[in-house]
Amino acid sequence: MPIVIKKLFTIFLPLTDNNGAVFPESIFEQVGNELVRKFGGATRMKPVSQSAYLGQWFEPISGVAYTDEIIVVLVLTDPSSDTDEFFIQMKEDLKHLFRQLDILIMAHTVEVF
User: Fold this and answer.
1) Which of 1, 76, 80, 107 lies at a C-alpha separation of 20 to 30 Å from 60?
2) What is the Cα–Cα distance from 74 to 36, expressed in whole angstroms?
């Protein structure tokens, strides 16, 4: 079986907003369903315990350190500029949906066996 070059997108979504209000499960299902419709699949990695996945960062202008409990969503796609544009727009949509200043989305070129 030949090696296939794909692009792996990793999306980090907070479980709560900046005031500590928990996002409903339906919001994560909405994101997952959109990715499945567009790309045929998505993997949502949910923490098993309350502190399984923590995102931490420092905002230098305010001097505030933040910690979020997160869900990680993985999407494997064919590499294309259309796919990149989709995730650029999705990032903006997710920032609004999750009431965040930023949402981390990473993309990596991977080899699939």
Assistant:
1) 107
2) 11
Query: Alpha-carbon distance 112 to 101, whole Å?
Result: 34
Structure confidence by residue, pLDDT tens digits, 14-58: 999 888 899 999 999 999 999 999 999 999 987 666 556 888 888
Distance between CA atoms of residues 48 and 110, nearest Å: 27
78 three-state secondary structure = coil
Beta-bridge mates of residue 4? 112
Q: Locate 46 and state its tokens.
A: 């949910």
Q: What is the mean pLDDT of the chain?
A: 92
Instruction: Report the distance separating Cα 10 and Cα 106, nearest Å.
Output: 5
Tokens of 97: 């949906």
Nearest alpha-carbon partner for 75 in 113, 31, 17: 31
